[in-house]
Design brief:
binds sodium ion; elongated; AceGlu_kinase-like_sf; seven-stranded mixed sheet; HDH_cat; eight-stranded mixed sheet; NADP; 29 strands; VC0802-like; binds 1,4-dihydronicotinamide adenine dinucleotide; binds the ligand N[C@@H](CC=O)C(=O)O
Length: 817
Amino acid sequence: MKILKFGGSSVANLENIRKVFAIIQKQIKKEEIAVVFSALGGVTEILLQSAQKAKEGDRSYIDEVKILEDRHFELVRQLIPIQSQSTVLTYVKVRFNELDDLFHGVYLIKECSAKTLDYVASFGERLSAFILAEALKIEELPAVFVDARDLVRTNNRFGNAKVDFFTTNDLIADYFHSHPGLKIITGFIGSTEKGETTTLGRSGSDYTAAIFASALNADSLEIWTDVSGVLTSDPRLVYSAFTIPQLTYNEAMELSHFGAKVIFPATMQPAMRKGIPIYIKNTFDPENPGTLISNESGNGKLIKGISSMSGISLLNIQGAGLIEVVGVSRRVFGSLADAGINVILISQASSEHSICIAIKTTEVIAAKESIEKEFLYEIKNGEMDPVLVVSEMAVVAAVGENMKHNPGASGRMFQALGRNNVNVFAIAQGSSELNISAVVSQADLQKALNALHEAFFLSDNKVLHVFLVGVGLIGKTLIRMIAQQRKKLMQENDLDIQIHGIANSRYMAFDEDGFDLANCPLPQDAKGAKPMDIKKFVAQMEEMNFSNSVFVDCTASQDVADVYEQVLEAKVALVTPNKKANSGSLETYKGLKKLAYKRGVKFLYETNVAAGLPVISTLQDLMLCGDKVLRIEAVLSGSMNFIFSELEKGTPFSEVVKQAKEKGYTEPDPRDDLSGMDVGRKILILGREAEQDLQFEDIQIQSMVPADCVDAQSVEEFMAKLPAHDAEFAHLLAEAKSKGEKLRFMATLENGKAMVGLRSIDSSHPFYTLKGSDNMILFTTERYHDFPMIIRGPGAGADVTAAGVFADVIRLGNFSR
Ligand SMILES: NC(=O)C1=CN([C@@H]2O[C@H](COP(=O)(O)OP(=O)(O)OC[C@H]3O[C@@H](n4cnc5c(N)ncnc54)[C@H](O)[C@@H]3O)[C@@H](O)[C@H]2O)C=CC1
Ligand SMILES: N[C@@H](CC=O)C(=O)O
Ligand code: NA
């Protein structure tokens, strides 16, 4: 025997009822079943509201009830052929006549007791079960309508009646024994010994189903609803939440306590006591296995679900006078109990200096008052502080029986929260080890849930949430690369990269779900685009509060570099090819590194020097292993190398500068390259990475920008002035050529002194053979002494740079697993 229960949403309309009937038809072929129905979706609420209106003398209840009546009539007409309708229509009409009389009575005497309300509510289930039983007969099933008031005996606590199981079990067993057929049972209702109608409280129809399952020693109980079982977390907050295949009764109770509304613990009790397996199934996706709740724990995951509760406040009761005083907690909790306040979570450190209590925010004023009244004397004497209240809090809880005797759950939980900058205000874990609860701020709730969900369930699949400032050449190329590689990264590296914020100098836009990267708009074309304001951009990123957030700066802007501190402070990782921050003051450089370390987030900038070539990371490795850099000699500018090597082909200087710009090698303003500033910044960064305390002023730089071009108002004006200088550069080249040499724009750093400028080098020099946008870096160190370590390859251009930025982003995915 199996009991099936269908909730209000499953029988809300004809379309849904057809699905329910298909499920019943399928199941009845396999085994004996009985079915419990709720009222049609929304009917109970309308009945109770109408009673309230009648009581208040508001005659609009008449219209409401009429609508209900029509809805039931309509359903009968839809479900049952005309020649068989009369019995059902009569039943429905008689019920509504009774309701009319009842409401009229309530209207006249302006009184509606809990007893009357129960009677009113009972019409919902009686109507639905009767109509559906008759409709099932039309489907040629041996349906028998069962009014549960005849079988479920309760006390007279109207609204939430207690079941007399002794009598009820006998009545049910006898009835089933003596009545064949497919029983169609009204959920939610029962009756007292005197025959007064009662209701079973919240989720009463589930309870009815469990009562019948228990009385009949059913093999299983199926609760059919509109979701596919109990989910790992609230799907409105955690998009990746999924159905938990199996739960123990205890786990289900813990999860539902925290708002997994699918099942209400009290209703499971009768089935639980008998160890009857309960399946939570989806009427609208019947093939989905849903969730099985039984004595078995199922899979070996450390936890089963992550629950939460919002609208929480913390009360902190503290004071020196509380230490080692016996009876403090009795008085605290006694006063709360007297005020009828439910305590949700308690935490007291063994120093006994404070007791921390979580309660519903709606009860906070009463709670504070009652405790302060109790401790009036102690507060007056300064032995205790006034009760401290922190509101706008939420509780997150990891739930699962496998945590028992299985170290690591709390470690994983708090590491995930900490890494994502979620501050924990209080913690509680009972010795049952079934649940670890943490109080966090309401603003952090969604991030906390997602971080925990990922840590416990998706540790194989990490999501990085990117906020990209600078959708220019490099930024656009980066987006394209992520779009192309995303599927592979997900499948083979369990890494998902989503972009949630984009900006250029004029516009910014955000997308909660992540932009469609294959068709990513430019910031100005995106939905909801706003004028760019870097402070607002960072504020929005913080407000979106994603776990594993990454700020990627693909601008060359100082304004953007100025927000790095705020970004790292918010525990958001940072990846950038922009050299401005690291080549700013030494204090800024050191401060950012220190801050990233302190906040436990990564700050990666491989592309600050030589684009995607592994220069920074290599140098960092050398330093970590205790090497010492003696000398750096390098060609660090892709555009400058291109310019001076292309010059050799006889192309005029102004023309090769134009080409370098078109090829995307130059800085947004090519004067940054020609002036040696860009190379200066790079050698400065390398020096700093080599642990030398260098300032920008320590670098001697030779500029290649002709004097009359320095102050050009725009890049265009600058470019226009260049042809006038072609002859000077042709002359420089001819001079070098005459000696069999080549021109290379290079940087050296030795003995704390850095120099940047144009040199003429002979064929014995390693830089002689460099071509195009090549960079080359020679590290002479204590360990690479006789022959330097050499890194060489293209050091500018959209692809190699964006790929370097991309690699840094991917690296983040590996760090925080
Ligand atoms: N192009 C290359 O080969 C390499 C470039 N880099 C660096 O990459 C960065 C970007 O270079 P490109 O993409 O070539 O430049 P770009 O000029 O094509 O793009 C820069 C983008 O930043 C935006 N932007 C500028 N100021 C901004 C602000 N205050 N707020 C928001 N957005 C702003 C611009 O609107 C533009 O979309 C630079 O820092 C550059 O030094 C690093 C290595 C190689
Ligand atoms: N403009 C630079 C590229 C970025 O660092 C160069 O030419 O090397
Ligand atoms: Na690099």
